[in-house]
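tool_call: predict_structure(chain=1)
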Amino acid sequence: MRRAVIVGAGVAGLATALRLGRDGWDTVVVERAPARRTGGYVVNLLGPGYDAAERLGLLPALAAHALGPFTTVLVHADGRAKLTVPAALAEAALGERTVSVFRGDLESTLYEAVRDHTDLRFGTTVTAAGEGPDVLLSDGTTLTADLLVGADGVHSATRPAVFGDGHRVDLPYVVAAFPVAHASPERSATTFIGPGRTAALIDLGPGRSCAFFAYRCETPLEALCRGPVEALGAAFGDLGGGIPDALRHLGRDPGGAYFDTVSQVVLPRWSSGRTVLLGDAAWCVTVFAGHGAGLALAGADRLGTALREHGTDVTAALAQWETGLRPAVVRRQAQARRGMLQYAPPTRFHVWLGDLMVRAVTLPGVRGLVRRAAART
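tool_result:
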């Protein structure tokens, strides 16, 4: 039986364990953190991401966590409504083959699918992996592996160990997401977009509500050192509506926040010998493009297909896999660089243009174009 050691128990790592396990691989997933991460922002699975979730058999379980359509309200800085996109219009723009869930619920679904079929080791990571087949783990175990998969995210330790430093491109932005208390009787996403920043409150009921913040920051590492409470308070403390309540909620539980810089990963190749990077470790497209979770699912699914087709020729399988997937990743990374104008528009004029585009979505002829563009790879 062939064995794969997978570094990282996020979407990419768990999806890889699920896909390879179904083809008879013995899978070992190691995760540096002591437990799985929960929470996170909303992810939309559509196009290849939805197709991969379907092939992996995840859709029935995801249906229980599906957020469904909700109204989006763009607001002024004081919380007054600017324009509204009804839930039905958003649903029509995305199409039928889509599912929206919180990232934590997607990871939980994957975890439940693999927990009885893979060796999951939390609080553990790879300490050495040379040219030979042996992989040394931090718990003192030595494993013989036919494949080493680095699925340990944008801050991957596997990537520099194999490919060296310099492949992560840090951008001058900071993002945060954290759960908030349910407050509104209506299912809605209230979003403020101003020069250099976005603040959104997604309120879909108890246990299904969260806040999302993104802003331009010339010293993002300094912001991380300050922590989410101080940094977000300074960047968004002047806003009205539900933002003050969200920031107070954060102050009571700052440890529950996802708070990080924004980076892309640009590599000339994603594999070397029997080691391959997958998901954000290989190609992080950033939240500005979306589709990160969908690309992770599609990447894991296609990797399994390539390995099955090439049998024991791992090198040929990895080459075929990358050739097929890289064009979609390149497009999404370019989309992210354009998406910065959406999440952190540089001027009020750009904010106005963004509002104009949102209004256009309400036009019947435009909704079909949006749906096709969102699903295209």
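agent: Residues 314-343 form the longest helix (30 residues). Proceeding to next step.
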